[in-house]
Amino acid sequence: MKTKLLSTLLAGILCLPLVLNTAFAATGPAFSLTADQKQAKVGETVSLTLSGKGIKDLYAYEAKFTYDPNQLEVVTAKSKMEGFSVSPIKKDTEITIAHTKIGKVNGQDGDFDIGTISFKVKKEGDAKVTWTAMKTVDHNLTSATVTVNSSASFKASGKASAPTLTDIQNHWAKDQILEAVEKGIVDGYPDGTFKPDAPISRAEFAAILARALNLPDGDALQFNDLLKIPNWAQPQVAKAVKAGIITGYDDNTFRANSTISRTEIAAMAARGLKLTQGTGDKLNFADKDVIPAWAIGWVEAAVDKSIIKGREGNKFVPKAGATRAEATVIVLRMLDSK
């Protein structure tokens, strides 16, 4: 409920009618966009910083950018101001990000970095992101729009070297994990580990599937627990939701950090491949009767394609979770079955 209220507040603020003041227009703030690097490799992430000078009473903002979605993929946007942000809204070659402070407080003044927006490089070539416009809102809810026209450019070449993962050398899924990393489907952690036997969450598996299937951009997420979906995962989750691969629960929560069940994995894999649901008659697991009715057709479809298999004792164990390694192998099987 809190997230819905904040989303409504942000939407209301940024839909305010534009009020331009000539003195403000003459002496107003200046905005610029800079990249954290001039060279990048395919598969790497580049972070761009949004900066402002001469800012007065910035309570909320809406920033618009243009980019080439064939070359760059939006990863995340983060504001350096306190308050609440929405996920990047993507339409064709334009991205919109928005943020607002909360409560009866003054906006921020001075020269400062407003936030960052990150992109993953998809192919070689000269890449450019242009900050086209900035709508500002002060604490009195008076808004103004500034034409920015500031670009950040960098060159993308080659392919990023696969990271050395320190904890998979003797793991049964080592080769599959390395293959998935090479394909840009999964990533390791900043400390150089992959944590292959750690449980995988709903958000993580949705992100892996979205990358593996190269799903198109999704719509802004509207879950009640949106704030609990990690920023890096929101664009990928939005893709999977729009594709009909994953949904929320009856209370309109997504539960991003919950361990995903084998039932959910089977259903998502089958939907991702657009398989036809079975009747369940082909399944012969000893615990077939405890597979949820809504999922049994999806489980049969995924098992029939050998995407997911049973466990010891001829059991499917529908409520059990999956590890990061198991999920990686399942996604690779999906791609092999296409």
Beta-sheet strand percentage?
25-35%
Instruction: Name the shape in a single word.
Output: elongated
The sequence of SSEs as H and E is HHEEEEEEEEEEEHHHHHH
How would you characterize the largest beta sheet? 7 strands, mixed
The termini sit apart by: 40 Å
Rg over alpha carbons: 23 Å
Count of individual helical segments: 8
| Number of beta-strand segments | 11
| Poorly predicted tracts of residues | 19-26
Q: How many domain modules?
A: 2
Helix content: 10-25%
| Average pLDDT score | 89
Structural class: alpha+beta
Features:
338 residues; alpha+beta; Immunoglobulin-like; seven-stranded mixed β-sheet; 8 helices; elongated
Sequence-ordered SSE layout with sheet pairings:
Blueprint: H1 2-14, H2 22-27, E1 30-35, E2 39-42, E3 45-58, E4 60-66, E5 72-79, E6 84-85, E7 89-91, E8 94-100, E9 108-121, E10 125-137, E11 143-159, H3 174-182, H4 202-212, H5 234-242, H6 262-272, H7 296-304, H8 324-337
Parallel strand pairs: 2-11
Antiparallel strand pairs: 1-3, 3-9, 4-8, 4-10, 5-9, 6-8, 7-8, 10-11
Can you walk me through this structure?
- The strands form two sheets. Strands 2, 4, 6, 7, 8, 10 and 11 form a seven-stranded mixed sheet that branches. Strands 1-3-9-5 form a four-stranded antiparallel sheet.
- It is α+β, with helices and mostly antiparallel strands.
- The protein has helices at residues 2-14, 22-27, 174-182, 202-212, 234-242, 262-272, 296-304, 324-337; strands at residues 30-35, 39-42, 45-58, 60-66, 72-79, 84-85, 89-91, 94-100, 108-121, 125-137, 143-159.
- The protein folds into two domains: 2-159, Immunoglobulin-like (Sandwich); 174-337, no CATH class.
- The two termini are 40 Å apart.
- Strand 7 and strand 8 form a beta hairpin.
- The protein has eight helices and eleven strands.
- 24% of the residues lie in helices and 28% in strands.
